[in-house]
Design brief:
Belongs to the SDS22 family. Its main location: nucleus. One of its GO terms (cellular component) is nucleus. About 3% of the residues have low confidence. The protein has a domain of 123 residues: Ribonuclease Inhibitor (Leucine-rich repeat, LRR (right-handed beta-alpha superhelix)), CATH 3.80.10. It starts with 29 loop residues before the first strand and ends with a strand. By secondary structure, it is mostly beta strands. It is built from 1 helix and 14 strands, in the order ββββββββββββαββ.
Amino acid sequence: MSAMPDLNNKEDEGEMGDMKTMTFEPDILDIDLNHQRIQKIENLEGCVQLETLCLRWNLLTQIEGLSSLVTLTELDLYDNQLTKIEGLETLVNLTELDLSVNRFTVIENISHLKKLKKLFLCMNKISVIQNLEGLESLEMLELGDNRIRKINNLGSLTTLTSLYLGKNKINKIENLDNLVNLRILSLQSDRITVIEGLDSLTKLEQLYLSSNGISQIAGLDHNTQLNTLDLASNRIAKIENVSHLTELEEFWCNDNQISDWKDVDQLAAATQLQTVYLERNPLANDVNYRRKLKLALPSLTQIDATLTR
């Protein structure tokens, strides 16, 4: 069964905070205690069938009190005050773990989670990618908004399909060769100047590189499955080396330095192209900007933020 715990009829959930006073049925499957000002995980020993535990937006400082929850598949500790990844030793059936918006500096004590498919660690203080060996089922890794400077130690994650590394301090695309199943790669708002290191990612469908320091479109020769390419807010002066990307549906290149209308021909072979963003390029100052784009790329249904007629 799935049910909410008895919160002792306290009307103002904002004043909650003590799990000791809560009553949980022994056969409960899901517990959702968002925004209850809880400071300590406790009183869950009897919940031996629990599958999902959500403790978002609380005041937790330690991961504890979970050792009896062997059946747990989803654990959500988003937005607490946690500083150390610990207390997960027995949670071998976890498939989804959200530790985002905390105060972690080190990735540790999770390599035994063989069934884990999704790991969220964004908005922490992590500076090194490490200790992910053993996560042999991992499909999605979110490490955005940390302090990471180098892409490394991902070689064992061959099942990974989505990797999010935006808003870090990464200046080079590297060490991704083993991630042959990757379909989504996000490196937005980093410090990248060259598109490189993507040759092995032949299944890549979505590539997000906006808000970097890229000056040339290149390095995409083997990424022919791309349907979304985000290069917005860079230093690109020319659309080039994309004519082979015939699967493109979304091409975002606004806020660059593109001025030559001939460049648009690079997109002509992408017959499924639906959306193009080129606003705030010199080319977009043309009074006939939208009409010219639609004529050159008749499949378009959206130009910048506006639908075409």
